[in-house]
Automatic annotation (TrEMBL):
Gene3D superfamilies xref list: 1.20.930.60, Uncharacterised protein PF01937, DUF89, domain 3
Lineage: Eukaryota, Fungi, Dikarya, Ascomycota, Saccharomycotina
Protein name, per record: Sugar phosphate phosphatase
Known catalytic reactions: beta-D-fructose 6-phosphate = dihydroxyacetone + D-glyceraldehyde 3-phosphate; beta-D-fructose 1-phosphate + H2O = D-fructose + phosphate
Organism of this sequence: Candidozyma auris (Yeast)
One Pfam family it belongs to: ARMT1-like_dom
UniProt-listed PANTHER family: DAMAGE-CONTROL PHOSPHATASE ARMT1
Cofactor: Mn(2+); Ni(2+)
């Protein structure tokens, strides 16, 4: 079977286009500022900062001149052996058409971009472990105080009620749906899409169902029930979450994890992080530790300080996370595969990772980039079944649940006519390119494959 082509950076109807013309230069510009700020505050790092800054500025110029993308050097590969594979893939693309920054394949180049920045830092003596995106991640999380407190209150109420009575299976399923939605929209820019229910009674009520239904109109494919039925039929030992962004999204994922553990849906949760600074806001293992420290700092949030009921609710949740983390019930891993350019169809070929994920009863993939890698970032027709778009993964015995707010081109599993309708709707909302509804973050898909 011939596969559809991937998204390319020179297609004005692809979200690759604004990404390479606006987003990547903006990321580089703010990285240059952040390195400079850091080196001013940390005497002795100036020389290293200067070295990296020069490289980052050079890359900005390469974008402007649409230069050919070079192979990683021997020296760079000596520092990061995984770059060898990047070169092999680049060679394959070059055989079809010379790869330049503004015309090449989007997904591959976006991964290459973050590896390139990382290797420059790794080449220095004093900035080897510096995360150039950390200041930005922290700033964004600082502004999420109100959302964090609201979720903590909601979580506390629900978990106190859960502890009081034995919960029937229908209620558990509703709660699963609720926490899946929280984790899903934790990835979005617009959290107003979340249902506003707070108690078990609320959730079970007709009104609760109506609120959920209204919010779920934005979820174009919703396999939550299928995933729940699947999980209930397993040994219910372990759920894995392949994380996306740190800060608020990670916090929302921890709410989901705590529910799964407190309600005894499963015995443990494994969180998969990135090893290097990745796609700006992705979670590295140290971001997990940092988040716990930030939640424990009463003065951390800009907009929630001084509210004692807020700190109390945060404290309640934090205590639980810490306990589960200390006794290994919640653990973190970070396999280098997650920062390769490869599609997730390749997971069965990565022996150690495949074996590890094989122990899971449900693997939840968070966010947009994970979805792009699940579907190969190919221009599938939007009615293609999810199980076709994820190719070999569909028959890998790995149960996959993707929670994705749409922020790129590829979307699959839609009923006929939905794409066309949304293109028109998005245009009517005043947007020039109707096709960009798929990148607006306003719609979502929850897709399941039994494996
Ligand atoms: O701005 C575009 C982009 O970088 C996409 O390439 C990527 O898929 C997305 O942002 C990151 O989103 P997420 O954090 O949900 O994976
Ligand atoms: Mg991300």
């Amino acid at each position: 079977m011939t596969l559809p082509p991937p998204s390319y950076n020179d297609n004005p109807k692809s979200f690759a286009y604004p990404t390479v013309h606006k987003r990547w230069p903006a990321i580089l510009t703010s990285a240059i500022e952040d390195v400079s700020d850091y080196s001013k505050r940390n005497p002795g790092t100036e020389q290293c900062a200067e070295y990296v800054t020069e490289k980052l500025q050079g890359l900005l110029k390469e974008f402007k001149q649409d230069k050919q993308v070079r192979a990683f050097t021997k020296e760079e590969i000596a520092i990061k052996p995984e770059l060898e594979e990047y070169n092999e893939e680049l060679e394959k693309f070059n055989k079809q058409k010379v790869v330049t920054w503004l015309t090449g394949p989007w997904l591959y180049l976006e991964c290459y971009f973050y590896q390139l920045i990382d290797v420059w830092f790794k080449q220095t003596k004093k900035l080897k472990d510096f995360d150039v995106f950390e200041a930005g991640k922290t700033k964004a999380f600082k502004q999420s105080g109100a959302g964090v407190v609201e979720l903590c209150h909601r979580f506390k109420l629900l978990s106190e009620q859960l502890a009081q009575k034995s919960t029937d299976s229908t209620t558990l399923k509703l709660l699963f749906t609720e926490f899946i939605d929280i984790s899903l929209w934790g990835n979005a820019t617009d959290l107003s899409l979340l249902a506003g229910t707070t108690t078990l009674e609320d959730i079970k009520s007709l009104q609760g169902a109506e609120v959920r239904k209204k919010n779920e109109e934005k979820i174009l494919v919703n396999d939550t029930e299928k995933a729940w039925e699947h999980l209930m039929g397993t040994a219910r030992d372990r759920v894995d979450i392949v994380l996306d962004n740190s800060g608020f999204e990670l916090f929302a994922d921890l709410c989901l994890s705590l529910f799964l553990l407190d309600a005894k849906v499963v015995n443990r949760v494994v969180l998969h992080c990135k090893r290097i600074p990745w796609f700006v806001s992705d979670t590295m293992p140290k971001d997990f530790d940092l988040l716990l420290a930030q939640l424990g700092d009463e003065h951390f949030f800009d907009d929630a300080s001084g509210d004692s009921s807020g700190s109390e609710a945060i404290g309640y949740l934090l205590k639980k996370v810490k306990q589960y983390h200390q006794n290994g019930t919640i653990s973190t891993q970070s396999h280098p595969f997650w920062t390769s350019y490869a599609n997730y169809w390749d997971i069965p070929k990565v022996k150690d990772l495949y074996e590890e994920l094989g122990k899971s009863n449900l693997i939840i993939f968070k966010g947009d980039l994970n979805y792009r890698k699940l579907t190969g970032d190919l221009n599938w027709d939007t009615t293609t079944p999810f199980t076709e778009a994820i190719q070999d993964l569909a028959s890998s015995r790995l149960p996959v649940l993707s929670l994705r707010t749409c922020k790129a081109d590829v979307v699959v599993g839609l009923p006929k006519g939905v794409n066309e309708k949304l293109i028109e709707e998005y245009k009517k909302m005043g947007n020039e390119v109707g096709e960009f509804w798929t990148a607006s973050g306003k719609w979502a898909v929850i897709s399941f494959s039994r494996g």
